[in-house]
Amino acid sequence: MFQKFYQADNQTSASTKGTGLGLAIAKEIVEAHQGKISVTSMVGTGTTFSLTLPIAVVSRRRTSGFRPVVTKTSA
Question: What percentage of the chain reaches a pLDDT higher than 90?
């Protein structure tokens, strides 16, 4: 599903248009940010794409002198 897809040049009237790179590029971007992308699909119901990205939470506690505390969390 997330692999690059190429169409043969000899199919001038192919019913599917596009390069087939969208999901492969999306996966590379998500993984470059240490995230995950997944897909679930059911015939007659539809397809759901999900992605999870890590975030950094900045906690600004009042102390003597301002210094934000960065905490990394994961899902």
Answer: 29
Cβ-contact 37, 49 below 8 angstroms: yes
Do the beta carbons of residue 24 and residue 37 sit within 8 Å? no
| Neighbour-count burial of 56, counting CB atoms closer than 10 A to its CB (0-12 exposed, 13-18 middle, 19+ buried) | exposed
As a whole number of angstroms, the distance between CA 54 and CA 48 comes to 20
d(CA 52, CA 23): 15
pLDDT band, very low/low/confident/very high, at 61 (cuts 50, 70, 90): low
DSSP letter string over 49-73? EEEE--EEEEE----SS---EEEEE
DSSP-based three-state secondary structure for 38: strand
